[in-house]
DNA sequence: GTGAAAGCGCTAACAA
DNA sequence: TTGTTAGCGCTTTCAC
């Protein structure tokens, strides 16, 4: 346990400096020394101590990431994509979940900073309460927000273009003949909830459809079911279509509607949001807006490399346009012939 | 950027040693010094450097975890549970995905070791190919396997009791009247695939039901669908029930069967395995064996604290008994009255 | 091209 | 109780 570069140097009969140079290969050494050192290292089973290197280099090769919850398949997918991106450059991911609680989030941010991560990727759980901790962290280390973000635009962000997303969703159901559309989403404590609702309202106005009062709860299956029941309750004012804030809501909604005798998509079209995990699993397969997760992750990591804490520049906001994936919970367009599109990506 | 304990000491007019002692609170200092130091620290915005501390203490407060893929909801759930456990003791999680590839796994193991994690929790992707890397890692640092494990019992393990699980599943369908049962699982490159199949065979023998040739593919929805088609193909030898290696397979299977005109559970009972995420989402809700994920995580972390690399003791194997959750894809027992049980845990 | 030595930030002997 | 100092393992000047 614990063979150091000194041991290697001694075994190879050279100074630690030469051993270091030979091992890193970043500076010239005679071939003979290079040979002796690498042989000694192999024989002793030498493994460089990344902690010492980090102290010396003042960089850890580690990126911290905080998401509200790993249980949510959407965040999982982002984490996976980020992990994948980082691996390309030999960096590792220090992962934390804030459990949707700003106090936990702030604490985790502190420990990540203490561990001297080289950068931070975060999806802040609360649009207001997360502000101080996120801003403070951004002052110390490159930080980019992904998906959710704090209000005020004080830090870089990459996410989906909710306006484009909702325009596609609303446009699609309108093309299928819907005249009255309801949005079922989450209460407005996070940025996604807000921008999706406002995106919906703009899109409805533009498409000339009648937007009824939105139903706002949680990003959960349970809320989807409850929203479905709410819709069934006052049956006379049923919309022709429902656009949901995420797939979980949509799946719950579809189930509740069918249980209540409403046929989907014949009586009502339902569109989800995310297209990770659940969408293909459910029956019938969900028409939904696919989040460009892989691109978002790549963009976030790229952005991270550009941020310089020392010389702050105006915060960047990168909104990536998503794509509507038409499956079987929405009515085909009037002309006919809308058919399900297969997912390109497996569920791992 | 970079106020050190020296800065704090100077500002407080004391030595670094006193500053360190005051800050850690682990040794006696006069109240006055304690006061001056903590005030100085607060004013300067001092934040201890965990890297330096780690180098000095030869312990990082960090646990490495490697799972085959974060995309798989089962592994996600374990990761979440482990993260939760670790947080209780102020430790952080360094997360990696092996992408189901032994070579990637070995490489990630190396970097985790280089980062001097205090321990390792791993679900080795391949029962054979993962052996050398896992054994080597176990020699350097406390290591416990969770869920999957390598052959030969060279390292501690905690997972589900597959024998008990399959006995419950087979017993349940047998009680519902099934005489012929098929197992649909994964090819035998990982321990779970193997022990579930053998558990199934033992359980079938014990329950006196006729086990037809197992169908072995992947742990995916797609394979479930394909297996369903296979079953439909030679319709005359259809089993009364199918027990699946995980929920994804089960969901795919149910969908394929229904598409082929087979009613579930009236014509055939289907039982899944895992009960994370998908099981409640699908329609009808899946009868499945619930993995005791939270307990597994707690046990793994506890075990990690007991392992001493210096004095190896016989490897522990902890198999936790799971519970069958009866929902709506299986026929009620002859006497009648099997009804769905709600999940206690949300999908975050 | 190679070696000696300083120093990254911290804590724990060891002295005073 | 407090201060001085060594040293965790590494890389990189700075001389030679």
Q: Uncertain segments of chain A of ≥5 residues (pLDDT<50)? A: 336-348
The Cα radius of gyration of chain A reads 26 Å
According to CATH, what is the topology of the largest domain in chain A? Answer: Rossmann fold
CATH homologous superfamily designation of the largest domain in chain A: Response regulator
Oligomer: homodimer
The first-level CATH class of the largest domain in chain A is given as Alpha Beta
Describe this protein's structure.
Two copies of one chain form a homodimer. The first copy, chain A, is an alpha/beta fold. Chain A folds into three domains: 5-48, 434 Repressor (Amino-terminal Domain), CATH 1.10.260.40; 62-159 and 294-312, Response regulator (Rossmann fold), CATH 3.40.50.2300; 162-292 and 323-347, 3-Layer(aba) Sandwich (Rossmann fold). Chain A has 13 helices and 13 strands. The first copy, chain A, has helices at residues 5-12, 16-24, 31-44, 50-57, 73-88, 102-114, 131-140, 162-175, 191-207, 221-233, 247-259, 278-281, 293-306; strands at 62-67, 92-97, 119-122, 143-146, 156-160, 180-186, 210-211, 215-217, 241-244, 269-274, 287-290, 317-320, 323-325. In chain A, the strands form two sheets. In chain A, strands 6, 7, 8, 9, 10, 11 and 13 form a seven-stranded mixed beta sheet that branches. In chain A, helix 2 crosses helix 3, helix 6 packs parallel to helix 7 and helix 10 (221-233) packs across helix 11. Chain A is elongated and about 90 Å long. The relative contact order of chain A is 0.11. The model of chain A is unreliable at 336-348 (pLDDT under 50). Chain A binds a DNA duplex (16 and 16 nucleotides) through residues 2, 4-6, 14-18, 20-21, 24, 26-30, 33, 48-49, 51-58.
């Amino acid at each position: 346990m614990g063979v150091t570069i000194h041991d290697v140097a001694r075994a190879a009969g050279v100074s630690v400096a030469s051993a270091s140079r030979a091992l890193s290969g970043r500076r010239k050494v005679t071939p003979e020394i290079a040979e002796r050192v690498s042989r000694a290292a192999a024989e002793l089973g030498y493994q460089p101590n990344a902690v010492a290197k980090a102290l010396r280099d003042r960089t850890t090769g580690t990126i911290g990431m905080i998401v509200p919850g790993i249980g949510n398949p959407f965040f999982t997918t982002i984490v996976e994509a980020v992990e994948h991106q980082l691996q390309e450059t030999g960096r590792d991911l220090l992962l934390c979940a804030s459990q949707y609680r700003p106090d936990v989030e702030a604490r985790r941010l502190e420990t990540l900073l203490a561990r001297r991560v080289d950068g931070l990727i975060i999806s802040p759980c609360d649009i207001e309460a997360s502000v101080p901790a996120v801003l403070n962290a951004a002052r110390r280390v490159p930080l980019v927000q992904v998906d959710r973000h704090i209000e005020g635009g004080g830090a870089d962000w990459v996410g989906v273009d909710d306006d484009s997303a909702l325009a596609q969703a609303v446009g699609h159901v309108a093309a299928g003949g819907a005249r009255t559309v309801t949005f079922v989403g989450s209460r407005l404590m996070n940025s996604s909830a807000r921008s999706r609702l406002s995106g919906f309202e703009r899109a409805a106005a533009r498409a000339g459809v009648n937007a009824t009062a939105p139903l706002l709860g949680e990003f959960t299956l349970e809320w989807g079911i409850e929203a479905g029941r709410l819709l069934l309750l006052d049956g006379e004012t049923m919309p022709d279509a429902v656009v949901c804030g995420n797939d979980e809501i949509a799946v719950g909604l579809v189930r509740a509607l069918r249980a209540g005798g409403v046929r989907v998509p014949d009586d009502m079209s339902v569109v989800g949001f995310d297209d990770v995990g659940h969408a293909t699993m459910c029956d019938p397969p969900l028409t939904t807006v696919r989040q460009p997760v892989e691109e978002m992750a790549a963009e976030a990591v790229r952005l991270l490399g550009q941020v310089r804490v020392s010389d702050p520049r105006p915060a960047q906001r990168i909104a990536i346009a998503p794509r509507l994936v038409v499956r079987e919970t929405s009515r085909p367009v009037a002309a006919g012939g809308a058919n399900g599109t297969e997912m390109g990506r497996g569920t791992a």
